[in-house]
Design a protein that fits this description.
Layout: H1 3-7, H2 9-19, E1 21-27, E2 43-49, H3 56-69, E3 79-81, E4 92-95, H4 119-128, E5 132-136, E6 139-143, H5 148-165, E7 171-174, E8 179-180, E9 186-187, E10 191-194, E11 199-200, E12 207-208, E13 213-217, H6 223-227, H7 229-235, E14 242-246, E15 253-258, E16 266-271, E17 277-279, E18 287-289, H8 290-293, H9 299-306
Parallel strand pairs: 2-3, 13-14
Antiparallel strand pairs: 1-2, 1-4, 5-6, 7-10, 8-9, 10-13, 11-12, 14-15, 15-16, 17-18
Length: about 300
Amino acid sequence: MSPFIDQHRNALAEMCRQYGVARLHLFGSAARTEQFDPAASDLDFVVCFADKSPGYADRYLDFAEAGKVRGHGDAFETLHVLPGPAPSPRHAVVEGAHARPPCFVAPTMPAVAPKPLTVEAYLARDRDADGRLEFLNGTITDVAGAEPEHNQVKDNIARELGNRLIERGCWVTSSDQRVHAGNGNYVYPDVVVACDPAYDDEHRPRTLLNPELVAEVTSGSTAARDRGEKLAAYARLESLREYWVAEPDRALLTQFVRSDDENDDWRVRTYDALDETVQSVHFDDLAVPMQALYALVLEEEAAEDAA
């Protein structure tokens, strides 16, 4: 664990007491001491609250905001808070008395929220737009173009999944397929898989209603949304079984998997080396090498690993 966490452990414990957090678990680069750069990296936490009493939603949003207002530096500016049990108990930062408290998503909130629009207004605007528009929590966001590395990793994921799933009759589409993410939210994932696709035919373009696997490739402008608002929306989709988040400029893919038990938990696994293989839980025998997902983008690193 990074010494940076030890330096701020008391402040984190105080935040947990104030906002009713029973367990705070760390994962990602800060959990691997040699890879964490406080000046450039975010802190990724799983936050488990002591109870689900009224007001917990305000508490988890306040908790994410507290990392900024208490002056812990840029590394605390984005607290990525994930649903489900912690990835590994060895990275517990704060451990409370509750053996299995509920865990919730805390999205990063925009500094200034645009005026909310209705779903119908969004659908009409998206229909007539030159590009793609997403609609999350009442706010429309322009889906801008991306850097070549982002596009290559996205296409690699789509190709590798498509080649492996086409014989099962699964549709694997990218970028231009709109998905209803529940609660009036609409997004255009980088890659989406549906083996028995169902569509809303009322509006154009037709909207996919039942994705089973979604993959997003982050960028500087989308990383917080991919791990915050989008993660929260996807986690509520009953059809969705897996959510992959890949970074385009380094070998790092986070896999969120919905459990099949009655608690409907989400489990988290991180792949951070090109010699690893991403193993799907929902799709039997679906395994994709990280080197294939980062083909062309990280060729020099792959050559060094092979040597």
